[in-house]
Each structure stands twice: as structure tokens, then as C-alpha cells.
Specification:
The protein starts with 12 loop residues before the first helix and ends with a helix. Helices cover 68% and strands 4% of the residues. The chain has helices spanning 13-16, 24-32, 35-52, 61-89, 94-98, 104-136, 141-163, 201-229, 231-238, 240-268, 273-296, 314-317, and strands spanning 171-176, 186-191. Helix 10 runs antiparallel to helix 11. Residues 306-316 have low confidence and may be disordered. Strands 1-2 form a two-stranded antiparallel ribbon.
Length: 318
């Protein structure tokens, strides 16, 4: 049985004639819209500094690549999440949506958003795994971490396409949000598919979120062990790398724990979906920007000249 266009706004006079006025949704989501240019600028700056560096051998290509994969995946997710959920919630496009018919373009946007979620979560997990490999086998990590990144990225892309394949034959449409959003606040949804939800989304989100937490805890424990057994390890760990490890771990754990819990709530209690998007948007944007801000302060990304010795330790980037 095909899913229906529940709460559709298309071809309804009250939505076609809807006139936008400034509302609290616009102010709320507009506040976090700055996360997109910030992430884009910071990632571009980090890439620029890395590419023009004369000492790339000390900047460790593998962890840098995994960091960029995570950063750009998060940016991709942020952009599509705004297009599919947040910007339509402001009611700016409601009249335009209502004047058109449900179409394939809208479901393509939804499919891309779902894939960006898997990509963001998966690349963050790969970054944590790469960081874990570096800390546990620091002398022979390069090939193992590089192949892990390559195969992991391919698997994430293929899995996202497979998970969203049930929507390929459907159509996308604009749907009215429930309370507390005002009348005219919409978001992009989908219909005319054989199933209502992606069956993999909840278990994958919860599982990867849990693994991210466990892997990061493992890295912290390994660093504490290194600090107790070697003077060099103690010096690196108690300096900037130790603090960076704690801060970035917290910045990664908190949003994914929230994301996993909120996903379960929204799927099993659909009436709470509107509240979930409000909380998720703030938590996700703040902590994704925090991760970049922490790494952007790293010695290797400063324009001030630094001696190679200061950037050689592997754990400094991780």
C-alpha cells in the first residue's frame, strides 16, 4: 500500500494565499544559519594552509584527510538540513510550495538529506577510528588508516543509496509542521512509497553514536596509559594534545548522543518531531562548529611560522 500525502499544503487555497510575516521560526533558524559560512570558510582556510605548507610530511595526510572528510560531510548535512527542514519552517516558501504539485525534485532533496545524515555520521565514525588507529599503532598506522578511510567512505556512500532506495519511485511534497510551529510552517516530506520509514535509520544512528562514544573513550584511556609509561607521551598528552583530545571528544559525543536519542523519540513519538528539529538544529550546529574551532587553533593551521618539532607528534592532530 502506497503512503499518502499526509498534511500536504499543495493546491490548497489557504496556503496558496498565505502571506509571509516575520515569525519566531525565522529568528530561531536564522540564528544558526551562520554555521554554514563559518564551516565553509574554516574548512577552506585549513585546506589552503595545508596545501601551501612546505612541510607536508609533518602534517600527516591521513588524519588531515579524515578531518576534512568529516568537516565537509557535516557541512553537506548542514546545508541540506536547512533546505529540507529549517528554511521551509520559516514559511517563506509556503505559498510557492502550495502553488506547485508534489514532484520528483522535492524527493531528490529529501533523499540527499538522508544520505547526508549517513555521510555525516559515518565520516565522524571514520575520523574516530582513524584517530584510534594512530594512537594504538603510531609507527605503522598510515596504510591501515588510509585503507580504512577508503573502504569506509565507499561503504557509507553505497549504504546511503541502498537505504534510501525505497523512495526512488515516490514523490516529494511540502507538509505542514505540527505544534509548536505556526500555520504555514512546512517541511519537505515524501509519499507514494511502499514503506513509511527507512528501517535502518534508527539502529544505524544509535549504533554509530554509541561506537563514536566508545572509540573516543578508548583513545583517551590509551593516551593516559602512554602518559604514565613514557616521558614523551606524558609531555605530549598533558600539553595541547591532551586538552584537544578531551574537548573534541566531548564536542563529538554530545551531539551524536542527542541525535541518537532524538531519532528514537521522533520515530516512535511522531507528535514530538517539531520539538526534535528545534533541539537537534541547535545542538548539531553548535558542536559541529566547535569541533572545527578546536582544530582550527591547532599549531599546523596557524599562519604564524612554527618549527617542525612542534607539529611532529601524531597525537597533536588527533
Amino acid at each position: 500500500m502506497k503512503t499518502e500525502l499526509f498534511q500536504s499544503v499543495h493546491n490548497k487555497a489557504e496556503y496558496i494565499n498565505f502571506e509571509y510575516t516575520l515569525n519566531w521560526q525565522t529568528l530561531y533558524f536564522g540564528l544558526f544559519l551562520s554555521a554554514i559560512p563559518y564551516q565553509a570558510f574554516t574548512l577552506a582556510r585549513m585546506c589552503y594552509i595545508y596545501c601551501k605548507s612546505k612541510s607536508k610530511a609533518t602534517l600527516h595526510l591521513v588524519p588531515f584527510t579524515s578531518l576534512m572528510m568529516m568537516g565537509y560531510s557535516n557541512l553537506f548535512f548542514c546545508i541540506l538540513d536547512n533546505i529540507v527542514f529549517r528554511l521551509p519552517s520559516t514559511a517563506i516558501f509556503t505559498s510557492l510550495c502550495a502553488s506547485s504539485d508534489p514532484n520528483k525534485f522535492l524527493i531528490i532533496l529529501y533523499i540527499l538529506q538522508l544520505n547526508s545524515t549517513y555521510l555525516s555520521l559515518g565520516s565522524s565514525f571514520l575520523f574516530c577510528v582513524t584517530r584510534c588507529i594512530i594512537h594504538f599503532i603510531p609507527l605503522s598506522y598510515k596504510k591501515i588508516a588510509a585503507w580504512t578511510l577508503l573502504f569506509g567512505f565507499v561503504i557509507i556512500i553505497c549504504f546511503g543509496i541502498y537505504a534510501s532506495s525505497f523512495m526512488f519511485g515516490g514523490i516529494g511534497y511540502c507538509r505542514q509542521w505540527d505544534h509548536p510551529f505556526s500555520f504555514g510552517a512546512v517541511y519537505i516530506s515524501y509519499a507514494e512509497t511502499d514503506q513509511r520509514h527507512d528501517p535502518f535509520f534508527v539502529p544505524v544512528t544509535i549504533t554509530l553514536s554509541l561506537f563514536i562514544v566508545l572509540v573516543n573513550i578508548g583513545v583517551i584511556c590509551q593516551n593516559k596509559k602512554m602518559a604514565k609509561t613514557t616521558n614523551a607521551g606524558r609531555r605530549v598528552y598533558t600539553d595541547s594534545a591532551g586538552k584537544s583530545l578531551y574537548y573534541t571528544t566531548l564536542a563529538m559525543i554530545i551531539p551524536y548522543l542527542f541525535h541518537g536519542c532524538l531519532t528514537v523519540v521522533s520515530v516512535y513519538y511522531p507528535a514530538t518531531s517539531a520539538y526534535v528539529i528545534l533541539i537537534r538544529s541547535a545542538v548539531t550546529d553548535v558542536f559541529q562548529c566547535s569541533i572545527l574551532a578546536l582544530y582550527n587553533k591547532h599549531t599546523m593551521f596557524q599562519t604564524k611560522k612554527t618549527s617542525p618539532v612542534a607539529i611532529i607528534p601524531l597525537s597533536n592532530l588527533s
